Amino acid sequence: MAELTRRMASLSDVQGIWGLLRQVAADVPFKLEDEAEQETLLSELMACCTSGLSPVVVDDEKGIVGALLARRDQFEWGFRNSEAIHVAYAAVAPTAREDKVLPALLGELQGRKVPLLASVKSGEQLGLAAALGELGFVHEVKALNGWGDLYQWTPPPSVHN
Fold first, then answer.
1. What's the predicted TM-score (pTM) here?
2. What is the 3-state secondary structure of 11-30?
3. What integer pLDDT is reported at residue 74 of this predicted model?
4. What is the tens place of the pLDDT at every residue in 49-86?
5. Which residue of 17, 48, 102, 152 has the smallest Cβ count within 10 Å?
6. How does the average pLDDT of the chain come out, rounded?
7. C-alpha 88: how far from chain center
C-alpha cells in the first residue's frame, strides 16, 4: 500500500488536481466534454487552490490521489461574517478509494472547528454523502433543480474553564 500524506493545496497543484478531476469526472460528476462546465470547474479549482482551505492527499510518488475543493462560503461570509467553509467538489483516484481518503480530507477541515457546508452533486459515485453522514454532517437541502444536496456540520461548542 502507498504511503499517503495530507496537506493543503496551493496554486502549484492546479494541474495535478485537474488531472485527477478529469480521471474521475463521471464519479464527481461533471461533463468533461462540456466546455462551459470545464470552465466553471477550472474557475472553482483556481479559487480553491488559492484559498488555503482545500486539503489534498498525495501518494509516495507525489501524485494527488484525493482532493476537496473548498473555500470560504461566500454567503455565510458576506451576510453573517461567518468563517464557514464550503466543499464544492470531492475527487478520489480509484487506486485510493479503499484508503479512507474522504474521511481523512473531511477530518482535516473539521479540525478547523468552523461550520462546514458540503455540496453533493446528483449522480456522485464516490460515497461522499455516506462519508459526510458518518462524520456527523446533517442533510440540509435537496436542490429541486437536480444539481445536488447540501450537507452541514457544526462544530461542538468549545468548553472554557
1. 0.88
2. HHHHHHHHHHHHHCCCCCCC
3. 67
4. 999 999 999 998 899 999 999 998 766 655 666 788 99
5. 152
6. 89
7. 6
Nearest-CA neighbor of 84 among 115, 55, 107, 121? Answer: 115
Grid cell of 20 as nine digits: 485527477
CA 116 to each of CA 10, 24, 41, 135, 152: distance values in angstroms, whole numbers, following the listed order: 20, 24, 20, 11, 6
Helices (H), the chain: 14-23, 35-49, 74-80, 101-110, 128-134
Best CA proximity match to 25, nearest among 98, 91, 114: 91
Residue 32 confidence class, pLDDT cut points 50, 70, 90: confident
Place of cell 469526472: 25
Distance CA 149, CA 96 (A): 24
